[in-house]
Amino acid sequence: MRHATRLTLALLALTAVLVAAGCGGNDDELPTGAVAVVDGVTVTKAELDSLLTRAKLSYEQQQRDFPKAGTPEYQSLQTQAVAYLVQRVEYDLEAEKMGVTVADAEIDERIADVKKQSFDGDDEQWQKALEEQGYTEDEVRAEIRSQLLSEKLVKEVSGDTAVTDADISEYYAANKAQFTVPETREVRHILVKTKVEADKIYAELEGGADFAALAKKYSEDPGSKDNGGKLTIAQGQTVEAFDKTAFLLKVGVLSRPVKTEYGYHLIEPIGPVKPGKVTPLAEAKAQIKSQLEQTKQNDAVTNWANELAKAYEGKTTYATGYAPPDTGATGTGTGG
What we know:
single chain; alpha+beta; Triger factor/SurA peptide-binding fold; Chitinase A, domain 3; 4-stranded mixed beta sheet; 51% helix; elongated; disordered N terminus; disordered C terminus
């Protein structure tokens, strides 16, 4: 099960499904056994069945009920599967136009990497995982080819993702909060539902009762009660009344009951306020650069995908029952 899950993750790290609008129901215009034709290339029912069979095996291994045929859940799953197969053809066609190819040696290398990382290079475990996931050798090679092709297309269409120092400085200045660590403090508290309970516990603590014992006995906060009510808080990240009290009190001073949306708290700081700090631009520079490069790449790929959807409007014909729902966002093709 562990290896099978790894294999699924390794093989299905593909780009998001792109549903190209097209016409449906022109069965007389489709080859026998086709669920769709994309610019003259057939997507077969056998391909769809194989994909759904693998999905069913995955559901079973996760101990989930696979949707029954005819239900909205099954229809949704089938629509996603058809969309993925249609997208794969579109990518193949676009890659051919752009001169982007995947060699058998590259597929062999990727398989070797997966075997090494997930199966310690053991071919027997690899074959067992393929069987558990419902893959034939040809199918897994086709999936890996599709993955490699998608990766190459992403690089091809991303264009210039260069990020300048000015870009980095501008982002840093506009998002200072991301690089600021707030003040923190160690406190302990007891949370109860009513003020009557809180007043009673307050009196016991003032009389010398053990805070940790009362926290374990009475506190409604599961995250701290077994730890004597102790927790470290960051300023501004708890509810306002709690936050204000916890940072104003002196060390060792017990608050009277503090009301919040969760109930009534008895709060006692057990350490000084630790000052916050700001990560300097020099230290944040590499992180920001990587983030901005990824954003530029994502934007470029999204724009390309949108243009691709428009380019294939009217070029995709679906068999009855297999067309994606018309969202009205891209219109309907005339197909044929």
